[in-house]
User: Which sequence fits this backbone?
């Protein structure tokens, strides 16, 4: 009877012969594709669909918010550096717990603690109290290895690019115009008041996401219970790290150092280039929309054209983005057009590089060690990012606003030949395996 009822509903909702029409066929293919998406991917995507738009509203204004709370450019960089260090240290504990006791428990508890950190950010009275909340947020992100582990565990090799694209696409659909919503709140309640509202909304939605992950996420790794201690567990994981993993971590570390020097980009655009609050929101939304439009073709390229094609294309597009950013003149008729071009190149590069990188990282690490190795993976890059952000803040305050951005671009260009050579070596085996899957 239940089967017959479902069949009747299907005939009502999708009339006979409807699939022959272009729209009907498209809807059928979408429904069929969604049916193949693993449950955990759906739950994660749903969570980001709700949470990411709220978080994205604060994106263009967080640095300005901390500035209004009394922080200098150097202070802002210091806060972010401390947060990154806290996150890197917390991932060590989170990676161990993820591989020992399973992914799910670590994931939902950490999500709840991050939500509480947003509540503290929303009531910060000065930049120091905001710094404390931000560092606590960094510690609360100890669940990231569990999140990354569940994502990698749930998807086979030849679908990772497309599933990663889906996980970015769903929140992107809602987040692409979120900065404009943030601009509306900031214009209505003032910079400080508007950002406080956004952070409080991030707290509320974060609690809802934590509950959803508790109820619906399926465990992908059976808990091991008692056994070796944390140190022995990490020593065991390191025995299974390949040379390719160390190479990719080294590249990640170098480019986190170089990239973090330009951390104050929103601050720089607002106070030095003369970009107003609405234009900051417009640039953020433009980047999100372009990135969103490219996710599906980029994800397919990662799986069909190979990791090397996508990661190389993304890296070069990112370099062009930095070039146009550096060339943007202050308070000129060319300022906004140059920043738009920079944003477009950055969005294209981000789509291809991000999906290829996350897929390659999963390719190189065995399932049972992902929590711990992902945790260790973040240590050196986080430390280098913190150092780079501090150096950038110091350069901004002491050598001039343009110097950290020019230095970051020049170092990236110098490292490009090394990066492209190593990308080719790292992706050779994986791309060969992908070609074999496509040919079978």
Assistant:
């Amino acid at each position: 009877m239940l089967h017959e009822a479902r069949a009747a509903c299907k005939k009502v909702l999708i009339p006979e012969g409807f699939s022959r029409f272009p729209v009907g066929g498209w809807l059928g293919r979408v429904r069929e594709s969604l049916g193949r998406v693993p449950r955990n991917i759906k739950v994660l995507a749903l969570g980001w669909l709700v949470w990411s738009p709220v978080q994205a509203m604060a994106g263009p204004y967080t640095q300005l918010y901390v500035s209004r709370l009394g922080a200098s450019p150097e202070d802002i960089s210091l806060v972010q550096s401390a947060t990154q260090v806290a996150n890197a240290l917390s991932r060590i504990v989170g990676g161990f717990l993820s591989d020992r006791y399973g992914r799910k428990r670590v994931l939902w508890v950490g999500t709840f603690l991050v939500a509480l950190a947003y509540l503290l950010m929303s009531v910060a009275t000065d930049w120091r109290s905001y710094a404390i909340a931000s560092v606590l947020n960094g510690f609360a992100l100890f669940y990231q290895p569990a999140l990354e582990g569940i994502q990698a565990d749930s998807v086979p090799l030849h679908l990772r690019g497309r599933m990663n694209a889906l996980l970015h696409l769903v929140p992107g659909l809602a987040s692409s115009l979120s900065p404009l919503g943030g601009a509306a709140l900031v214009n209505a309640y003032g910079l400080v008041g508007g950002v406080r509202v956004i952070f409080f909304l991030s707290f509320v939605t974060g609690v809802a996401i934590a509950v959803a992950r508790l109820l619906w996420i399926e465990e992908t790794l059976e808990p091991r219970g008692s056994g070796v201690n944390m140190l022995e567990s990490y020593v065991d994981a390191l025995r299974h790290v390949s040379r390719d993993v160390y190479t990719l971590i080294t590249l990640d570390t170098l480019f986190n150092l170089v990239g973090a020097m330009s951390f104050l980009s929103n601050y720089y655009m607002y106070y030095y280039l003369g970009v107003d609050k609405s234009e900051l929101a417009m640039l953020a939304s433009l980047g999100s929309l372009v990135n969103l439009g490219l996710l599906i073709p980029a994800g397919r390229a990662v799986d069909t054209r190979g990791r090397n094609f996508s990661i190389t294309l993304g890296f070069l597009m990112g370099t062009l983005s930095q070039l146009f950013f550096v060339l943007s003149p202050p308070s000129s008729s060319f300022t906004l057009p140059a920043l738009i071009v920079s944003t477009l190149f950055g969005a294209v590069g981000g789509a291809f590089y991000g999906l290829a990188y996350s897929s390659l990282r999963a390719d190189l690490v065995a399932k049972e060690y992902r929590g711990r190795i992902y945790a260790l993976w973040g240590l050196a890059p986080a430390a280098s990012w913190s150092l780079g952000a501090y150096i950038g803040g110091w350069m901004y305050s002491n050598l001039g606003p343009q110097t950290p951005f020019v230095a970051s671009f020049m170092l990236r260009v110098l490292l490009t030949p090394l990066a492209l050579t190593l990308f080719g070596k790292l992706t050779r085996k994986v791309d060969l395996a992908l070609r074999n899957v496509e040919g079978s």
Notes: The CA atoms of residues 183 and 277 lie 7 Å apart. The longest helix spans residues 178-216.
